[in-house]
Amino acid sequence: MKRIAFFLLSLTALSSCRRPAPGYLLVRQDTTQQRAQYVFMSPGGDTVRRLDTAKYYVCFSDTVRAFAIVGIKGRKSWWAIDRDEKPLFQVYNTSDGEPTPDELRYGMIRIVDDKGRIGFANDRGKVVISPRFEAASNFYRDKAIIGGSCKKVLWCCEGENSDKHYMIDCKQAGFIDRSGRIRKMGAYSFEEMEKLSGWKPDQD
């Protein structure tokens, strides 16, 4: 069975370019206090909630609809929290060794469990596909590409002081629909599965 390199693509959602929907909150950093804080604010400028810097060390979101993506001290990776700071799910990091949490694309965002398996949540903050895949692209319309029989391999670079970059090497590729049902799976390359499924890396 031919081994294939399964590249997971990190894509920027267009949501940041669109006018936010009603009911959203803005995220601002308040530096007027002794310690800088992230603040959830109404569009009119009223403070709704302050994120305690004793608990959070970064907030990646600039607006909050159903959730914001944050770094929580003492917790692995990135987390989605709702407006009341309830942790909803762990967000997939798209680039090994760099702080690059996944973003919504076609209303879906990649999530992970403690074993590194990938699933999906929707734009309302609900887990709709429980984490169970070894590798998965983000969604394009109604499908995402998945990988099976995978392992993490060094892509670049060797040497004691060099940065380590990895890719996911999978023996199989397939694709799922928005319910998580596997529609096709086999000894395909990522590129072959792109053509078979109609998945595309760019937004319309």
Features:
204 residues; mainly beta; 5-stranded antiparallel beta sheet; 1 helix; 4% helix; globular; disordered N terminus; WG_beta_rep; WG repeat-containing protein
Please, could you describe this protein's structure?
Strands 5-7-8-9-10-11-12 form a seven-stranded antiparallel beta sheet, with no helix packed on it. Strands 1, 13, 14, 15 and 16 form a five-stranded antiparallel beta sheet that branches. The protein has a four-stranded antiparallel beta sheet with strand order 4-3-2-6, with no helix packed on it. The chain is globular, with a radius of gyration of 18 Å. The chain is mostly beta strands and 204 residues long. The longest helix is centred in the C-terminal third of the chain and has 8 residues. It starts with a strand and ends in a 7-residue tail after the last helix. It is 4% helix and 43% strand. A hairpin with a 5-residue loop joins β7 and β8. It is built from one helix and 16 strands. This is WG repeat-containing protein. It comes from Hufsiella ginkgonis. InterPro entries: WG_beta_rep (IPR032774).
Multimerization status: single chain
Termini separation comes to: 34 Å
* Shape type: globular
The share of residues in helices is under 10%
What is the SS-derived class? Answer: mainly beta
Strand content: 35-45%
Order of strands side by side in the largest beta sheet? 5-7-8-9-10-11-12
| Biggest β-sheet strands, sense, barrel | 7 strands, antiparallel
SSE order:
EEEEEEEEEEEEEEEEH
Tally of extended strands?
16
Mean pLDDT: 85
The poorly predicted ranges are: 1-21
Radius of gyration: 18 Å
Q: Counting H and I runs of at least 4 residues, what is the number of helices?
A: 1
Question: Structurally, how many domains make up the residues?
Answer: 1
Pfam families: WG_beta_rep
InterPro entries: WG_beta_rep
Organism: Hufsiella ginkgonis
Protein name: WG repeat-containing protein
